[in-house]
Amino acid sequence: MSPVVLEMPSTTPSPPGAFLARLVRVDEWSTAVGGEVFVARAGRVVRVGILEVVCGGGSVAWIAQPGPEPRQLISKDEGDELWIAPLQLQEGGVKG
Fold first, then answer.
1. How many angstroms separate the first and last alpha carbons of the chain?
2. Residue 38: which domain range?
3. How many domains does the chain have?
4. Which of 10, 31, 38, 80 could form a disulfide with 74 if both were Cys (CB 3.0 to 4.6 A apart)?
5. Three-state SS string across the chain, please?
């Protein structure tokens, strides 16, 4: 899977050491539970947070963010994509 560059709004923080050109799309969302993910719609990052839980047969997920921001429900059916730094992924899930 080749890396792509996503458009980041100026108000979206980048995680330390992460390079956007090195993010990969996560097709099986359950493999990224517990990881810091970028939620994108139409190639634009709309949210950064921790993937808490995946349900609905793997097509719906809850994203959490530290601080006062509420959790957000995302859905593949709505065109949401998850992107993650490959270093966080390993066989069977996110490195802890």
1. 23
2. 20-89
3. 1
4. 80
5. CCCCCCECCCCCCCCCCCCHHHCEEECCHHHHCCCEEEEEECCEEEEEEEEEEEECCCCEEEEECCCCCCCEEEEHHHCCEEEECHHHEECCEECC
